[in-house]
């Protein structure tokens, strides 16, 4: 006799916890828009990016980084575009890479690869860290919820940013306003790991939501006070559609697109709270343009009609092993027991947790050219071109 399925709430916590564990232990549009449009003046000179593994371009690969991230440095990561591992958690480019290309800028170097005298940061820096939380790491340690693998939080990224601005731009705090006038600040999704740590604790998901939203809001406010004038903030994706989530959740926990309902409901509620705070920040900082990139609905749209976007496998991972999702948490992409799908561009998911370049391309396009940015990204560009 099989045991009864877990409740929706406990299933959601279990799935999100495992999502963080695997993220921490497995790790790692057509042509670029700039090429399609031809040579044009760059609207921005730099991009500063923040977030987690969906945005990280290499900050977890360092001598001081966690050992559990080694697989992202192994083939077949990077196979599609770079043809080698670049410590991105995908087969190729990420959303932030497509953003850079659309603005005729080079790919952003990870902060940890930049020396104090390096010229590599001439066009911006990526501060995102895979496995990062929004809430400070010490909170999870105090509540015995820490996996003790990625101590870097959003506060860490802000401290890195401050250190970078002082060493490379020669400014501190509000004095950096001039240095930020020609920069796009891109805040990638962050928060899934915060919810994940609630498993086995007395801290509720509602508490985590409140603390996460408060922390992210304070982070955004800090950047705005320093002079950030053009900002894009991504919401959380439909994490309930990841192969890992599908693998772990009970079959009776499904929504209208066949994904895990409890997890998608939680991330949807998180995004609603985040958007409300962004609306408040817009009123407090009327001279800044703050765009909300609706990751949840953009991803949901693709899952509703995957064939429309060229995807034949909406649920299976391209790199992995096992049925029914070509995913096994004990045999992750980059290890000898896994295999690679013949055409990654036909898959939405790359390794069970992260997305393929093809999916990132579609998502980036909905942010930059579609209707899943509020206000539209074109509005931000227009303001920049008029305001200089």
TrEMBL record:
<keyword id="KW-0732">Signal</keyword>
<keyword id="KW-0325">Glycoprotein</keyword>
<comment type="similarity">
    <text>Belongs to the 'GDSL' lipolytic enzyme family.</text>
</comment>
<protein>
    <recommendedName>
        <fullName>GDSL esterase/lipase</fullName>
    </recommendedName>
</protein>
<dbReference type="InterPro" id="IPR035669">
    <property type="entry name" value="SGNH_plant_lipase-like"/>
</dbReference>
<dbReference type="Pfam" id="PF00657">
    <property type="entry name" value="Lipase_GDSL"/>
</dbReference>
<dbReference type="GO" id="GO:0016787">
    <property type="term" value="F:hydrolase activity"/>
</dbReference>
<dbReference type="InterPro" id="IPR001087">
    <property type="entry name" value="GDSL"/>
</dbReference>
<dbReference type="InterPro" id="IPR036514">
    <property type="entry name" value="SGNH_hydro_sf"/>
</dbReference>
<keyword id="KW-0378">Hydrolase</keyword>
<feature type="signal peptide">
    <location>
        <begin position="1"/>
        <end position="35"/>
    </location>
</feature>
């Amino acid at each position: 006799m099989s045991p009864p399925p877990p409740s929706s709430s406990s299933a959601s916590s279990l799935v999100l916890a495992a999502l963080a564990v695997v993220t921490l232990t497995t790790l790692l549009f057509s042509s670029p828009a700039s090429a399609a449009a031809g040579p044009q003046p760059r609207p921005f000179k730099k991009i500063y990016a923040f977030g987690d593994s969906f945005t990280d371009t290499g900050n977890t690969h360092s001598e001081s980084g966690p050992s559990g991230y080694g697989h992202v440095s192994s083939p077949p990561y990077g196979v599609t575009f770079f043809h080698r591992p670049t410590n991105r958690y995908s087969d190729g480019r990420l959303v932030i890479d497509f953003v850079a290309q659309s603005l005729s800028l080079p790919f952003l170097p990870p902060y940890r690869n930049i020396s104090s005298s390096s010229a590599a940061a001439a066009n911006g820096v990526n501060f995102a860290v895979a496995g990062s939380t929004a809430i400070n790491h010490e909170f999870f340690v105090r509540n015995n919820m820490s996996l003790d693998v990625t101590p870097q939080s959003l506060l860490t990224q802000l401290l890195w940013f401050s250190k970078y601005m002082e060493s490379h731009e020669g400014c501190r705090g509000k004095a950096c306003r001039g240095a930020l006038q020609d920069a796009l600040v891109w805040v990638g999704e962050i928060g899934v790991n915060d919810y994940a740590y609630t498993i086995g604790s007395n801290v509720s998901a509602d508490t985590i939501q409140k603390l996460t939203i408060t922390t992210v809001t304070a982070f955004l406010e800090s950047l705005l006070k320093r002079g950030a004038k053009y900002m894009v903030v991504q919401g959380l994706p439909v994490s309930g559609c990841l192969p890992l989530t599908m693998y772990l959740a009970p079959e009776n926990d499904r929504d209208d697109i066949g994904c895990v309902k409890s997890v998608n409901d939680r991330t949807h509620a998180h995004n609603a709270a985040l958007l409300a705070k962004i609306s408040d920040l817009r009123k407090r900082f009327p001279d800044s343009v703050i765009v909300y990139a609706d990751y949840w609905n953009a991803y949901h749209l693709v899952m509703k009609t995957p064939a429309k976007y060229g995807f034949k496998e909406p649920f299976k991972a391209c790199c992995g092993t096992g049925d029914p999702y070509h995913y096994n948490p004990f045999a992750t992409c980059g290890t000898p027991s896994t295999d690679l799908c013949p055409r990654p561009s036909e898959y939405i998911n790359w390794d069970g947790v992260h997305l393929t370049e093809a999916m990132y391309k579609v998502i980036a396009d909905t942010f930059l050219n579609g209707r899943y940015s509020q206000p539209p990204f074109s509005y931000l560009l227009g303001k920049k071109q008029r305001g200089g």
